[in-house]
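step=predict obj=TatD family hydrolase n=258
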Amino acid sequence: MSHDFTDTHCHFDFPPFSGQESESLALAEQAGVQRIIVPTVTADRFARVLKLAREHQPLYAALGLHPLYIAQHQEPQLEQLAGFLASRPPKLVAVGEIGLDLYMENPQFERQQRLLIAQLKLAKQHDLPVILHSRRTHDQLAAALRRVPLPRRGVVHGFAGSLSQAQAFIRLGYYIGVGGTISYERAQKTRSVMAQLPLTSLLLETDAPDMPLSGYQGQPNRPERAAEVFRILCQLRPESPDDIAAHLQHNTRALFRF
């Protein structure tokens, strides 16, 4: 049985995809990756990502201000985000990529937290789910999600935390994004977490062109490798591939309302 996948996290507005959109989408489709969600990282990319979604049937947009670029996010950028969300673009499916990061240099963490709360409130106001980034900040992120409860919830993308941290997000109604980390034998903790979480809580992603899979180090990651992440997830889990694929598809549709 051929499966129908969604890459729920791909930075398709960056090289090597920009300028190679049709070829890249053809490769993804050959691997069964039918839909790709493109989260933004800075305000100057909002219009570009919406245009990509308008022009290419498989692409969907998420708009948000990523914590790694905190120095670029000021009040005007937040106002731009609010304006774009209010205009309700047709293929906008989430607010993202937003979140917290303590792995970076000079994190300006209080500003990060204020920016996150502001964006969670916008997601609530516009009845959208969120795509969340979190590095070394799972407990602080969970606290923020408790502070601003979102009816549409969201996904903690590229998750590599502990089982109890994943369970805390799941209790809040959030999904967990499974990516290429599970392709590495040494990522025992993450592999074990993804083997144990309920299938009802998982989404498939690549984070392309970042987070290359094992065997592809040094090359840009690509959306068609979502099929490879799926194959590895099937090796880690007791359920049948058809069952796993059906759950992933159902979870994706439930969260993003395709």
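step=describe
The beta strands are 5-7, 33-39, 59-63, 92-101, 130-135, 154-156, 175-178, 202-204.
step=end
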